[in-house]
Hints:
By secondary structure, the protein is of the alpha/beta class. It contains 21 helices and 26 strands.
Amino acid sequence: xxxxxxxxxxxxxxxxxxxxxxxxxxxxxxxxxxxxxxxxxxxxxxxxxxxxxxxxxxxxxxxxxxxxxxxxxxxxxxxxxxxxxxxxxxxxxxxxxxxxxxxxxxxxxxxxxxxxxxxxxxxxxxxxxxxxxxxxxxxxxxxxxxxxxxxxxxxxxxxxxxxxxxxxxxxxxxxxxxxxxxxxxxxxxxxxxxxxxxxxxxxxxxxxxxxxxxxxxxxxxxxxxxxxxxxxxxxxxxxxxxxxxxxxxxxxxxxxxxxxxxxxxxxxxxxxxxxxxxxxxxxxxxxxxxxxxxxxxxxxxxxxxxxxxxxxxxxxxxxxxxxxxxxxxxxxxxxxxxxxxxxxxxxxxxxxxxxxxxxxxxxxxxxxxxxxxxxxxxxxxxxxxxxxxxxxxxxxxxxxxxxxxxxxxxxxxxxxxxxxxxxxxxxxxxxxxxxxxxxxxxxxxxxxxxxxxxxxxxxxxxxxxxxxxxxxxxxxxxxxxxxxxxxxxxxxxxxxxxxxxxxxxxxxxxxxxxxxxxxxxxxxxxxxxxxxxxxxxxxxxxxxxxxxxxxxxxxxxxxxxxxxxxxxxxxxxxxxxxxxxxxxxxxxxxxxxxxxxxxxxxxxxxxxxxxxxxxxxxxxxxxxxxxxxxxxxxxxxxxxxxxxxxxxxxxxxxxxxxxxxxxxxxxxxxxxxxxxxxxxxxxxxxxxxxxxxxxxxxxxxxxxxxxxxxxxxxxxxxxxxxxxxxxxxxxxxxxxxxxxxxxx
Length: 744
């Protein structure tokens, strides 16, 4: 499907009477227009641009926010959160544009995390596709739909590296790896903004949560982090830097503290690194009430000082904490905050509005007919179905999959088999449960009539087993059982940290009941994170991870189960055997005692009750065919700074009987560094399609910059020495070859 097919109706705009601000001519550069407008703004109007409020449905009547009306008319709100819909955004925008002195439009923001009305798989799921084109297309569609509802700004992508599945927000991440996370960050920013911000269907993207929010201790949300600067630069910073390089318009500071200072007021992050080192020229917003939460962190005595510290550190916009609303003007008047700092922050916000074209058309896309035509459009639904199947990861298959369509009866059992809301997952935007096609509904088309049996069996919580009898009855009349188990949408995402990663409630007991029937059992795992499978594995014949697959997840997963689509997903996270192994990730450092050398074989880095190895490796995923790798070669044994890139080439062959897709992965090991280095690091990947029996050579380019890291002296760059490359289908890639990087 080509993106151009999604865009024609965006040009069908209703012309509305517009009160435009008296700004400098549109032919002037944005910087000049910003400077002109700033020169005519009062202190209070400037502060207003840096304040964001969260809206509700109505401006009048019970439960309304009528108290905001005079404030908006006075130019006291630069942006609104959670106001959406063409009619509603027009109503709110009219207050700002037609009643305020300078007619400055507001920005309308919404958490469009993995789709707007058409919901795609959760970000951890889309990362499992390793398909950058499909990921970018999903965000393009999300931006088109969001824009059609009057939204100008999304608080996505979340680019936090997440290595602890106890943390619920791993569901919103691209997983554990900085390289994969960086490539996906760029794709998502491009999808939201394209390369022409302000074009039809584009919205401001926001890289969040800066920084290391995914490293909260013990996986407990909103908790503290303890991360060295070296680890920040090597692991947690790269996806944020990639977002900057892709032109991301805004950043969001994290909730967490870092080295004793909350990210909300962390000048090292917001000023030195983000603006000083990376050259970011957009604006930074707090997370929800992040400024006022500094009082609980304990590094400020009152809201005034929290506002002062945050603003001086580089935080431009206050989301719902009232710190800037109440104190920023006085801080400027008293000299505690320089006027130049205020103008820089306001100027960045105004520049974004100019680039979006809001000063020319404040009611951008406030058109109900266009909104109706674009939301959940057929092409969008098909893209969601395609990404759902591309995101599915096959972890085990004892020959039961794909299901044979001819003549068999299937029992689909479990609390997630027919649960539309849970299929949407966390942060599901404006997704409608009534539009979701569940797994049960999709399988009913593949196995019509009496050939599909269904029973819920149990819930994911509690201890009620009264549904087991119906589940056994459904299974008794079937040839194969599909057990849809895992987590509800409310069991993953923000504020859903888990100390146990076992199947919750009576789900494991239900699985034992199904196993006891003697019928083949396929576990379809719908979850926002890796769940422990040690007790599960002996009970099932196949394991397919479907994540929370979104609006069209049912048809997408049915395509995989029936073989209409050959699974091609690969894990973007390491899958642990035990909670005790966490955090567990492939790119770990080596120990001084990696293997036993003593006579007892005891004194080395290991557990006494579980292997060191994960249950499933990063980058792993099965197919209905098999792939073979050989013929690894390098263009040269030596890589020289200033010389040509090193070309790494391997041959990949589809050794099976059906067509399939494979994610070819390149890893590098730095044998000796000035500081300890990971055992392997992902440095490249390519997803290829091969017909049965087809072979193809896949090549990767390695430059010295690809080998850079935070060195002993805290500078960032490569070091000369010996390296190894590995090519294969997961992080345990076996093909290897050495090369040397010379000194400059």
